[in-house]
Amino acid sequence: MPEDKKLRSAEWFGRKGKDGFIYRAWMKNQGIPEYEFKNKPIIGICNTWSELTPCNAHFRDLAESVKRGVLEAGGFPVEFPVMSLGETLMKPTAMLYRNLASMDVEESIRANPLDGVVLLCGCDKTTPSLVMGACSVDLPTIVVSGGPMLTGRHRGASIGTSDIWRYHDDIRSGKIMDEELLTIEAAMCRSLGHCAVMGTASSMACMVESLGLSLPGNAAIPAADSRRKVLAQLSGLRVVDMVREDMKLSDILKREAFENAIRVNSAIGGSTNFVIHLLAIAGRIGVPLKLLDFDPLAANVPLLANIQPAGKYFMEDMFYAGGLPVVLKALDSLLHRDAMTVNGKTIAENYEKAECYNDDVLATLDKPFNSVPGLAILSGNVCEAGAVIKPSAASAHLMVHTGKAVVFENIDDYKARIDSDELEVDETSVLVLKNVGPKGYPGMPEVGNMGIPKKLLDKGITDMVRISDGRMSGTGFGTVVLHASPEAAAGGNFSAIQTGDLVTLNVPNRSLTVNLTETELAERKRNLKPGEPVATRGYVKLYIEHVEQAHLGADMDFLRGGSGSKVSKDSH
Ligand code: FES
Ligand code: MG
Q1: Which of 79, 229, 246, 358 has an alpha carbon within 20 to 30 A of 538's alpha carbon?
Q2: Which amino acids bring their CB within 6 angstroms of ligand 1?
Q3: Which residues contact 459 (CB under 8 A, 6 or more apart)?
Q4: Structural domains in the chain, sorted by start
Q5: Predicted ipTM of the assembly
């Protein structure tokens, strides 16, 4: 900390007279001695602990480790709760509340006497919401992820969240009975932590590490491993120095960091949700990033992490194999080596000494597990502003495919008809699900990987082309086109597709088209009846009125950018 630079918290605790009295006095009721307020960096521990977010339920314990590090470095830790988004319990989808949680985080950080922040993130949306909110304030900030669960074990087999989609089909075809399901549930989620595969939570943990926002190794240490606590303590220790060095989020989050993160996400077979969250984060910190930028960056990056759903293993195996630094080192020639990270070293300095301990789990560029890219961005008259597919989790034989559309107008229509014997569908059909986008659902749920119609499942069909304006769980897989933008509810061409239209997916050409002319599409759109408003009050109304489309990150228009950390007025 430069001698002449005052701590931000001194604006509260260093004040004379009535204001300083009020700011200090009420903190003292917690038994805090006078010297804690004198020239000590105050570190906020932004905690998404909640028993309704099972993936983050161990965070009070983790916060204690962070505090030890902060105290050790001569800072003063203060833990505060923010809205926590549990992926599994929240209806209609945790994504509806990502932007709300980010507002909570932003305002909580700015309004309080904090000099630096530690973000405790775990379950899917808790990472982007916290990073987005923190970016709009831009204090020295470090991320500590909660870590993945231990690998599930059932009847001698390793299992994880991606198996849910397989079990779903097995339940529908009668292969699995209810009693067995209860045993599987317990076996799958047998420890603290977030989903144990490369779903969205793990992809987000890898994202923060490759952006340079966490200490090296953060992504893969299991929640139950004592080294997770060590990392938390070291992060607490480090953030105090970041305050002294005035190393802010904007010093780390440069365009190069974003490009590194995109390449890494492709190499790990990361979640498609990564695209939306990264776009939103870029929007907050002011780095220009477009959906189409992702494709050339991801295109020549093969799969280096053999982790489900794109591969075979689990996050625990990735940790034992050396963790994300091994992947970063393997990608060395493709990365911006000089990108700065929170520990004050460049990303290359951090991965230099990484060693791979299991090449069946983490590969090198010359011997990848799959040369198919982890992400492709599609354009065409089905999705004027783009759509997303994860080729590494899709079927090779469907990468170029034309089929007749079988259209479901919304999720209820889909649920009512998908298993009906009357549904006219075969394995060459293209399933189309509308009105599951940001505004349409609202909240853009993870329903894009629609189940295969029962009558095709019975024939042994396990994959077909599916297209929607919604998202897919990071644990999902299949030939699934997502985030079609603009969404049906925003009047995109997607709203005009009807059953029987011929839809062509051509991944090598990055195109998604329907055999309709612009005139035909315009004509059909003119005849569409607008849907009923789905919210008349409260946050959801605000959300629907202001949420941007998926290709822009689905943030709210008025939340783009930041307002910095200054607050000029006092409270009394
Ligand atoms: Fe929380 Fe999967 S449900 S990470
Ligand atoms: Mg998810």
Answers
A1: 79
A2: 55, 87-88, 123-124, 161, 194-195, 199, 201
A3: 427
A4: 1-39 (no CATH), 40-150+191-351 (no CATH), 163-190 (no CATH), 375-551 (3.50.30.80)
A5: 0.93
